[in-house]
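$ ./design --mode recover --in tokens.txt
reading tokens...
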């Protein structure tokens, strides 16, 4: 978070005309209010996030980040996606890797809408994210309000979106394999259960 005022200050000092100085100040772009957001599921994919937020989100990606003392789980059924979708649950022995974004505040409402906050599907959780040898405090992430008693598998479409986001944003290869195996095993168990239940 470097101080960026150093470059522009010098050019203002050169102007002795108050009207000219006022004009220059008016031309400075207004600093937009921003917030930090940690994505661990389909929102890791900037292409999928763009669908909901209505603009390209690649420029807002800071870096992969780590959420400590939580683990991933598919504890929500999404009627829209027709499958299980990701959640994070507290677990002192685990950690979750994902993508840290710095988003303009004007996108906050669109993000809440995507996550079904008003409907009580997900809620905000403020967390610490470890990224580039520093800790980002009060980062927004989303956690499921009414969790399922056991995990429900993703469908192939959601599976692919999550994997694409993890790979595109540079999550470690080992974690990508862990994510792949977790989703694949859930799908397999579900299929085996359906076969056993069929007459």
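writing sequence...
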């Amino acid at each position: 978070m470097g101080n960026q005022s150093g470059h522009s200050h010098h050019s203002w000092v050169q102007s002795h005309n108050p009207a000219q100085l006022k004009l220059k100040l008016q031309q400075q772009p207004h600093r937009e209010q921003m917030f930090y957001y940690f994505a661990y599921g389909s929102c890791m994919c900037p292409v999928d996030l763009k669908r909901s937020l209505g603009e390209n989100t690649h420029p807002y990606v800071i870096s992969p980040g780590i959420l400590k003392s939580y683990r991933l789980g598919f504890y929500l059924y999404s009627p829209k996606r027709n499958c299980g979708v990701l959640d994070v649950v507290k677990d002192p022995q685990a950690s979750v890797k994902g993508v840290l974004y710095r988003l303009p505040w004007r996108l906050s409402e669109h993000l809440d809408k995507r996550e079904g906050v008003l409907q009580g599907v997900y809620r905000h959780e403020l967390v610490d994210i470890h990224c580039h040898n520093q800790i980002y405090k009060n980062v927004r992430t989303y956690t499921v309000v009414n969790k399922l008693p056991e995990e429900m598998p993703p469908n192939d479409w959601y599976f692919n979106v999550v994997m694409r986001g993890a790979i595109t944003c540079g999550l470690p290869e080992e974690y990508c394999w862990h994510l792949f195996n977790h989703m694949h095993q859930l799908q397999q168990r579900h299929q085996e259960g359906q076969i056993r239940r069929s007459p």
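exit 0
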